[in-house]
Each structure stands twice: as structure tokens, then as C-alpha cells.
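User: Run a structure prediction on this.
Assistant: Running it now.
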Amino acid sequence: MTSGTDRDFASPNPSLDIYKRASTARILDLGFWGLTLCLAVGSGAVLLWIILQTAITATPAMQTFGLGFLVSTTWDPVNDVYGVLPQIYGTLVTTIVALIVAVPVGIGTAVFLTEDFVPKYIRTPIAFAIELIVAIPSVVLGIWGIFVLIPALRPFFRFLNNTLGWIPIFGGEVPRGNNVLLVGLVLALMITPIIASLTRSTFDVLPSELRQGSLALGATRWETILRVMIPAGLSGIISSIMLAMGRALGETMVAAMLIGNANRINVSILQPGSTITGLIASKFGEAGRDQVAALMYAGVVLMILSLLVNVFAELIIRRYQNIE
């Protein structure tokens, strides 16, 4: 039996209240969907606008030099003759050096932070410190490289040159400090936290049954890591490596400050070189109209390289994602 008080507070039409709540929720859902759609379309439009503006500015250089721009080693603003082969070579070599150093260190750090080698109160500060490295501005790392890293590593570079100089990648003149290897090492410092953080997140989301089942079947910890955990998280690991590679390809200040900006191709990584981003940063401020077009053309080349890296990464991820 319903009391008078209950009748006073009861809704005269409960179905109407449910309809109003459903309508409000639907309006909020549609609003959120529309907002995210606008943001996604806006991001794509801004990216397309940047690409179009860069390509339009670079059109005079594209018409003048064509594909020969990619294989020429001359950068002569006086005679308006330009080519970026040394810069393409330097960009690729510094990125490869950075990945050779950063990939094993980053994956090893992720394994250390996820496999309970040390207590959590030790792992947490280490993980926090690794995350902080990403926040260091690249210009600060460039200054650190000039005043700290070059004096510290110069004896090591000269040791490599004296003892392994018969190997082409360590040969050439006596190293003075600014060289491709130095830039690769600083880039490795910058991208290692990216690989470590994303790989750690990949290991964290893997089902615990994989680890427990492997150990239950008699595998050791290292066998579990190498034969179960890493293959299971391979797509995530590759994603982190490709993201780090894109970061290394596009780094500007470290390359401009530490590589030496030598417009030539050196097989030796102990000699100065040049990168596309370093070229743009060092030449843009004093460039005339023709040189600006050439620099924009170099920017288009860098964007194409980044696009190829992303396409390659997507193909690899699709190839290995079913392993998980």
C-alpha cells in the first residue's frame, strides 16, 4: 500500500522521465562525436595545409633541379646551385647509429622495469627519471653536448680512430669532436625513453597467463622473456622503435649544434657531416628566395622519408600483430 507521501513524490509519468534522460544522453553522445570528428578533421586539414604550403614554396626549386636535387652534393647559394645528397646521407646515418644504441638499451630497460628484478620502490624512481629525459629541451642537450660531451668523448673518438682507423667507418682525419657518431649518441639518449616507455606499456598489457604458463612448463625467466614476452609484444615494440626513428629523423637543434655542418659525404662516422634539419636550421635565417625554395624542397624530402618510415612501420605491425 502506497502512502500519501510516496504519492506526492512519485513521478506522474515515469516513462517520460526515462525518455528525457535518454534524449539528454543521446544529445551528449552526438555532441561528443561531433567534437571528436571536428578535431580529427581539423588535425588532418592542418597537416595537409602544412604539406601544401611547403610544396608550393618548394615548387620553383623542384622545377629547376628536379630529381637531380636528391643526388647532387653541391650547396652553393652564390650560384644558386643546390643538392641534398650529403644531408640525406647524414640524416639516415645518424638515425641508424641512434637506433643501434637505443633499441637494445630501451628494450632492456623495459624488461628490467616489468620483470620484477628489483623491488617496486626502486623501479618507480627509475621509471620516473626515464620519463623526465623526454622533457629535456633538445637545445639544452645540444649545449650539454658542446660543453660536456665533446670534451669527455674526444679521447674516446681519437682512440677509435687510432686503433680501428683501418676500418672505413672509423677512419679519416683525427676527430675534433663534432661528428656523426656524437649526434647519434645524443639522439640515442633522446629516443631511448620513448622505446623504453612504450615497450614497458606493451609488456604491462600482455596477459599474465603467458608468463605463468611458460614458467609452469619449465622455462627459465630469460627463456620466458626472449621466447614468449618479446615475440608476444613484437608489434608494440616495433611501433615504439618506428616512433623513435621518426623522432630521430626530425631532430633539429642537436644535429645543427653537434654534427659540424660539413657539406660532404664521409664514410667515417668520426667525421663531421650534415642533416636535412641541421641544414634548414643553419641556412634559413640568411636565405634568399631561391635558397628558401631549395630548403623547402629539402623539407619535402624529409617529409617523404618520414612518410616512408610510417608506411613501413604499419606494414611490419600488421605482419606481426597476430603473434600477440
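The chain is about 75% helix and 0% strand.
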